[in-house]
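Changelog note: in this version the structure field was regenerated for every chain. One regenerated record is shown below for reference.
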Amino acid sequence: MFGLVLRKGITEIQNGNASQLRFEELYRNSYTLVLHKHGDLLYEGVKETIRQKLESVSNEVASVANAQLVEMAVEQWEHHKLIMTMIRDILMYMDKLIVKLRNIRQFILAR
């Protein structure tokens, strides 16, 4: 596991509870993992946490009536962009070092 504090923090961000988090602590945790050569573990843990949330959201969107489908999809996309911006901010060091060195997919959103 990539870190209980980080997994819990990212899950809280995804659930809309970001105001109760200390982003400096989350950034410091991700920085420390990268610094101690656990960047791959961090990347894979974040990727899996995001995948699980997206799976849940896709099931939620798929369950709405056709009349609300587009509205729900747009609403979820806007929420996803917001939370990914917050997650990206705590993973800046990982993106800067691990992602670029290993040429793997960055956590970037189209604007």
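Spot check on this record: Helices lie at 4-14, 23-35, 39-62, 66-90, 92-102. The two ends are 31 Å apart (CA to CA).
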